Amino acid sequence: MAASYVLLLLAALLALASSPSMARDPGALQDLCVADNTSNVFVNGFVCKDPKLVQAEDFFFSGLDQPRNTTNKVGSNVTLLNANRIPGLNTLGISMARVDYAPFGLNPPHIHPRATEIQTVLEGSLYVGFVTSNPDNRLVTKVLRKGDVFVFPQGLIHFQFNYGTNKAVALSGLSSQNPGVITIANSVFGSKPAISDDILAKALGVDKKIDLKLHAAPYMAASYVLLLLAALLALASSPSMARDPGALQDLCVADNTSNVFVNGFVCKDPKLVQAEDFFFSGLDQPRNTTNKVGSNVTLLNANRIPGLNTLGISMARVDYAPFGLNPPHIHPRATEIQTVLEGSLYVGFVTSNPDNRLVTKVLRKGDVFVFPQGLIHFQFNYGTNKAVALSGLSSQNPGLITIANSVFGSKPAISDDILAKALGVDKKIVDRIQAHF
Ligand SMILES: *[C@@H]1O[C@H](CO)[C@@H](O)[C@H](O)[C@H]1NC(C)=O
Ligand SMILES: *[C@@H]1O[C@H](CO)[C@@H](O)[C@H](O)[C@H]1NC(C)=O
Ligand SMILES: *[C@@H]1O[C@H](CO)[C@@H](O)[C@H](O)[C@H]1NC(C)=O
Ligand SMILES: *[C@@H]1O[C@H](CO)[C@@H](O)[C@H](O)[C@H]1NC(C)=O
Ligand SMILES: *[C@@H]1O[C@H](CO)[C@@H](O)[C@H](O)[C@H]1NC(C)=O
Ligand SMILES: *[C@@H]1O[C@H](CO)[C@@H](O)[C@H](O)[C@H]1NC(C)=O
């Protein structure tokens, strides 16, 4: 039933072949620009509120773990957390969505004009696909099960269908603060005013008549965090931040056999592109957190999912042992939007000079938090149970600068004279810390 519906709509759209103008979010010009919803000035995105009034709440959302009502025509319900819902996302180029699917529920064919989507299945299974643009219009499909991950490239028509008799739930990262949605059926057949039936009939080649937070404070880790933060803030070296370049074509699947060096990866022959290039399996599996920090990050970047090359997004699962810490680090090329799947976390980020403000929040299951591009941030599992979080990151290769490692464990080491001076401490203290790395 739904398959024929999907195909009908795809056929309709491919025939129309109108490619909306695609754009990438502009790069941020400052740490934060939290949307001020009281302003009546129109700008690209939103006017920023006074930085002094910025709160952790501006980067926060709660309840993403709650199932949504899917009793509607299509049997699916999308909860999109864009810059309208999380004002802190303004200028940061990323958003997150939860999609609930009833049995046989469909997220009908649609386009996000400004975003690539990376999706993982939390429950159930889905039949998903996207269609490349003219002239190939190739439909690339895949069946996804719990823990599978799939990429829908920017601006391409795509859909998800729950072909099973159980409900399904998926979580997506999208590479824009406001991805936009063009639902093919609605925009083709339900526009206001309507597209003339003459035009549609002609485009479709059919007759006009055919209708269509923190009480048990994490003292221990907090002091560790603060030590590292102090060290870093004193150093105050801001790495150069960049945004991924925009894609110049539908797809550029990384060719890992090429020995040509380019920005990102050389593309493989488009004819050899397969659904597997956009796919990863097993993100539902817990990772081993028996290590020094008690956390384990599984990052799906363009090295792991070759189809992500040129698409400006990636996804990560983070497992935290009880009292596990994802230590203070920076992603030089990405904003991160994270939701807690299990347990609870004490998280925070620090704004750049001269304020160096630490913004923190306790997150519970279903809570969502934003870590702005290039800012030092961390997550700490202050509980006695394990925790699991899932993140979207606005780069195919976000990069990772772990503060402790890069400051005290660089190879060769940063001279202890320099570090002692930067930190305002005795060289012997620096030597002791360096000995740990
Ligand atoms: C602006 O955001 C605040 C806090 O998120 C909300 O309470 C308020 O209703 C919003 N106002 C408008 C005009 O959207
Ligand atoms: C999605 O679910 C929410 C909460 O369950 C409900 O208020 C909303 O109407 C639903 N949207 C659609 C399109 O069914
Ligand atoms: C879901 O939405 C339908 C249609 O709006 C409504 O009849 C039903 O009561 C809702 N179910 C729940 C659990 O809120
Ligand atoms: C390239 O990717 C393929 C498929 O993902 C993998 O089997 C192969 O080991 C990779 N080769 C290199 C040189 O990384
Ligand atoms: C993360 O977990 C995987 C699989 O459980 C394991 O192979 C890997 O060594 C772990 N990494 C760290 C840093 O502990
Ligand atoms: C987790 O990693 C530790 C250290 O590498 C190892 O001793 C332990 O057997 C691993 N646990 C599992 C379940 O693989």
From TrEMBL:
Asked if the record carries the keyword Hydrolase, the reply is no
For this chain, the annotated S-S bridges are C252-C267
The domain of life is Eukaryota
Residue positions annotated to bind Mn(2+) are H329, H331, E336, H377
The answer to whether keyword Nucleotidyltransferase applies is: no
Indicate the segments forming the Cupin type-1 domain, all copies: 62-211, 281-431
Keywords for this entry?
Answer: Apoplast, Disulfide bond, Manganese, Metal-binding, Secreted, Signal
GO CC terms in record: apoplast
The molecular function terms in GO held by this entry are: manganese ion binding
Q: Where in the cell is it found?
A: Secreted, Extracellular space, Apoplast
Q: Where is the signal peptide?
A: 1-23
Binding site residues for oxalate: N326, H331, E336
Listed InterPro entries: Cupin_1 (IPR006045), Germin (IPR001929), Germin_Mn-BS (IPR019780), RmlC-like_jellyroll (IPR014710), RmlC_Cupin_sf (IPR011051)
Where is this protein primarily located? secreted
What PANTHER family does this protein's entry cite?
GERMIN-LIKE PROTEIN SUBFAMILY 3 MEMBER 3
Q: Which family does it belong to?
A: Belongs to the germin family.
Query: What is the official name of this protein in its record?
Result: Cupin type-1 domain-containing protein
